[in-house]
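Priority: medium. Attachment 1 of 2:
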């Protein structure tokens, strides 16, 4: 009699056990294919990773050598609530996608930014994804620091000429850089006088600007701007003395801007 009762219990329980196993199997399968059932630990990791990328992309650097004003509202006439020194790292809260103004030949707009626990607006023409070089920094050292954050940045150094008249050529390639960003970097790296402002795209096909305050014993110090149909083609700084002749070129190739310095000892 006991055997009969036990057999009946097993028979009744079997479908229930099978149903339970099937439900577990379906739940496991669903958790693999349905993003809404991702385990909380994995979801947290995905969220942190996404935030890390967007946070990193939200920071830019001040390239204006005299500093950049932080204003109360998104126009250049509003009150200043602070000043961000050259090289400052600022957080971009909201970036304008369209250029709405032109400041000294640089097109841009007012971005909402945060600096030193203050929120305001700043002209994004003086904000760059590339941090600017320190004073008296060598191009190679600057390129190495950039490559830590931007592996696509390239640098090359070539030595040629003769023993008595050596020639050194340095080239720094900056993907997705804008003309004014590259010009400011070249100005700091290769001591282009601050009297030379970033040239406007509109103007003569060939414009030559002489240095009005050249250093002592300098034979030549001038900026040459090449344009075509009011589009910049090349910016060149020519500098020479009794000891050496130097040329700095800023040129665009596709979406990359190259800064090249060629120096020849006299």
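Attachment 2 of 2:
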């Amino acid at each position: 009699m006991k055997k009969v009762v036990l057999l009946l219990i097993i028979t009744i329980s079997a479908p229930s056990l099978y149903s339970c196993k099937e439900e577990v199997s379906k739940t496991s399968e669903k958790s693999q294919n349905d993003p809404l059932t991702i385990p909380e630990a994995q979801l947290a990791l995905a969220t942190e990773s996404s935030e890390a990328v967007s946070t990193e992309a939200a920071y830019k650097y001040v390239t204006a050598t005299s500093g950049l004003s932080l204003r109360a509202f998104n126009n250049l006439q509003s009150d200043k609530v602070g000043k961000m020194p050259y090289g400052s790292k600022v957080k971009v809260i909201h970036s304008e996608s369209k250029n709405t103004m032109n400041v000294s030949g640089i097109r841009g707009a007012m971005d909402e930014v945060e600096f030193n626990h203050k929120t305001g607006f700043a002209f994004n023409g003086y904000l760059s994804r590339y941090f600017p070089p320190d004073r008296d920094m060598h191009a190679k050292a600057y390129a190495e620091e950039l490559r830590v954050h931007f592996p696509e940045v390239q640098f090359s150094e070539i030595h040629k000429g003769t023993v008595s008249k050596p020639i050194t050529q340095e080239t720094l390639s900056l993907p997705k850089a804008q003309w004014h960003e590259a010009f400011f970097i070249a100005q700091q790296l290769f001591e282009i006088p601050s009297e030379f402002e970033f040239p406007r795209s509109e103007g003569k096909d060939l414009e030559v600007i002489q240095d009005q305050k050249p250093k002592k014993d300098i034979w030549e110090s001038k900026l040459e701007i090449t344009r075509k149909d009011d589009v910049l083609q090349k910016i060149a700084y020519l500098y020479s003395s009794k000891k050496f002749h130097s040329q700095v070129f800023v040129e665009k190739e596709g979406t990359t801007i190259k800064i090249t310095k060629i120096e020849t000892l006299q």
